[in-house]
Amino acid sequence: MPEQHDHRPYDALLLLSFGGPEGPDDVVPFLENVTRGRGIPRERLKEVGRHYFLFGGVSPINAQNRELLDALRKDFAEHGLDLPVYWGNRNWAPYLTDTLRTMVTDGHRRIAVLATSAYASYSGCRQYRENLADALAALQAEGLPVPRVDKLRHYFNHPGFIRPMIDGVLASLAELPEDTRADAHIAFTTHSIPTAAADTSGTPADHTEGGEGGAYVAQHLDVAQVIADAVREETGVAHPWRLVYQSRSGAPHIPWLEPDICDHLEELHGSGVPAVVMAPIGFVSDHMEVKYDLDTEATAKAAELGLPVARSATVGADPRFAAAVRDLLLERAATERGRTPERCALGALGAGHDLCPIGCCPARTPRPAAAGADWEGPVAQAPA
């Protein structure tokens, strides 16, 4: 098998995502899945789900994952990579456990996993690994073989993830009124998380100099700087920028990362900024947090202020991202075979770790998490 097509030891790829409702009757059951164990009343979930009902009860995320699934299969086929690609979700059909059951039934025992979350954090990495551990335990309880699953490294700074976002920011700047373009600011946005979760994200070596925000903030700042530098090189203009947050949830007394995008827009308008590009670098696709929190809520706030805004595209099913996934898969496969492959990464932080270290992005309550250095669960032997 040619080295550039050698996916051994892996015999399948799993696209692992969050999931979302696909109709009005799905909204509350979906939110019950997301919030299970927190004791949130059903009536409160109906209120929380109001933004889904604005879109007919349908989250865009599942359709976008189908597009990414097709893009991955197309890219693999075009590059001679004979590897099946499956899809499973944490919180909605197709459920992760069901997908892994199908994969095992189909004979797969060594599975690479791509999570649709590019950065380090409990909710963006370890929780996915906990869900994998739960699914593997369920297979074991059913008497099925338990495959080995390896989560591919964080890809926040892979060129195939960043370059489509650079193009998106450039396109959005071109959409702004011409007389505002040169002085436009860029608001790089990502999902807010509790500051306690941010401060413990990644490992201590991954943190910013001051330690605050952990790897989660450090990685986003690195991506924002790479994009801002690329935009300056392309346009000759050094646009001011800031990392801001959106989609906060949870109790008001718990500190979360700030500033919120809407508050930031008010601040920029008050200081005389003529226009803003909102660049959602924390999201792989245009799912509900982008469609509602940016395209609906933040855009309405900008209109109220009379502030021109444009929202740049997420990566989605861009062929360059599909190619990046292929690269990440082959890179990890080569490492598993004892090779030392080239590891592509832009910015100052370098390529991430293959195996999540012990204590990385710790859980509030310790739980088994697969695909990490601390995983001690059962693993089936891959076929020779």
Automatic annotation (TrEMBL):
It catalyses: Fe-coproporphyrin III + 2 H(+) = coproporphyrin III + Fe(2+). Coiled coil: none annotated. The keyword Chloroplast does not apply. It is an enzyme of class 4 (lyase). It is found in: Cytoplasm. Fe(2+) binds at residues 191, 289. Involved in coproporphyrin-dependent heme b biosynthesis. Catalyzes the insertion of ferrous iron into coproporphyrin III to form Fe-coproporphyrin III. NCBIfam families: PRK00035.2-1. This is Coproporphyrin III ferrochelatase. It comes from Streptomyces albospinus. The gene is hemH.
